[in-house]
Design brief:
The protein has a 7-stranded parallel sheet, sandwiched between helices. The longest helix is centred in the N-terminal third of the chain and has 16 residues, at 16-31. Helix content is 45%, strand content 19%. The chain has 178 residues and is of the alpha/beta class. β5 (100-103), α5 and β6 form a beta-alpha-beta unit. It has 7 helices and 7 strands; from the N terminus they run βαβαβαβαβαβαβα. The chain has helices at 16-31, 44-55, 66-70, 87-97, 108-122, 140-151, 169-177, and strands spanning 3-7, 35-38, 59-65, 80-84, 100-103, 130-133, 163-166.
Length: 178
């Protein structure tokens, strides 16, 4: 897989472990000639990820909603910029351009992106997956919730068809290389 969407936090205030893992992923993507497709901002984990990818030779695609541009939060690292009207358009463009999505730790926006990819896959719009990069157990609550959906029969097919979990960087690389 060459084109990888990464969903993650724009917060500057997150713990250092999440920053380290964003940097590690970005560096790996650059070193392995992967294309980073992300939200295009110059903030938080998004900025750390993009800087690491770019400084290691990566190609960086930013998908930037109008409001981000208006607030002056667009990264100066972008090789390609997709301008969108809103967050819904952003998700659609990221999904269209990527072969797979990785979810680093993030907030409500990251959850929205994860569920957008999964929901559209469940009804057949695509066959792409989200990899939850479970840094320090960050996604455990969501993983438990998804398992509960299946147990309570709110999922029409096994949700494992739509997402995978990587509990460490080696697992993440294996999933991205297969």
């Amino acid at each position: 897989m060459k084109k990888i969407a990464v969903f993650c936090s724009a917060s500057e205030a997150v713990d250092s472990i999440y920053k380290e893992k964003a940097e590690e992923l970005g560096a790996w993507m650059g070193q392995h000639e992967k294309w980073l497709i992300y939200g295009g901002t110059n903030m938080g984990l998004m900025d750390i990820l993009a800087r690491a990818a770019k400084s290691n030779g990566g190609f960086v695609m930013g998908v930037v909603p109008t409001i981000v541009e208006e607030r002056g939060r667009v990264s100066d690292l972008l090789d390609v910029t997709f301008k969108t009207e809103n967050l819904s358009d952003r998700k659609d463009v990221m999904l269209r351009e990527a072969e797979v999505a990785v979810a680093l730790p993030g907030g409500v926006g990251t959850l929205d992106e994860i569920f957008h990819v999964m929901a559209s896959a469940t009804i057949g719009y695509h066959h792409k997956q989200v990899i939850l990069y479970n840094v320090d157990g960050f996604w455990n609550g969501i993983i438990d919730f998804l398992e509960g959906l299946e147990k309570q029969r709110f999922a029409h097919s096994p949700l494992a068809c739509y997402f995978k979990v990587a509990n460490d960087f080696e697992e993440l690389v294996k999933l991205l290389e297969n």
